Amino acid sequence: MSWEGYLTRLKGTDGSGTQPIAEAAIWGQNPLSVWATTDGLKDIKAEELQLLSKDRHALQQGMTIGGHRCVLLRDDLDTEDIFTINLKTRADAQGNRYCISIGKSKQAFIIVKGALSAQGGQVPNMMYGVLKYLRESGY
């Protein structure tokens, strides 16, 4: 499957028939480079993802992903069998806030932005299936 195919899978419907993920990107870790992205996450910068490789205590003050200012909800990026960090965007001009989840496989980061209608756990749960597959495949 091409990397674009993984984006399609990430943006698919979940078990309840809803589409919790609106945007997705896959970045290589070393070197930090875009492997595939949807338009809504095309503005992610390598400097933003570099923060995930360092001491992440600074993330408690927030971070920016692709122009979206975010607050940290939960950092399990180095926790075995989880490997995710969950963020929430600050309110946009319309007052909307979105879930952003980042997963770390062995060679890549998966970044997803939830749909406005997505409930809290739907976004990381949908991403985790792809993340687990990539980790088991050596990626």
TrEMBL record:
One of its GO terms (cellular component) is cytoplasm. Belongs to the profilin family. The keyword Membrane does not apply. Keywords: Actin-binding. The lineage of its organism: Eukaryota, Metazoa, Chordata, Craniata, Vertebrata. GO terms for biological process: positive regulation of actin filament bundle assembly; regulation of actin filament polymerization. GO terms for molecular function: actin binding. This is Profilin. Gene3D superfamilies: Dynein light chain 2a, cytoplasmic (3.30.450.30). Transmembrane segments: none annotated. SUPFAM superfamilies: Profilin (actin-binding protein).
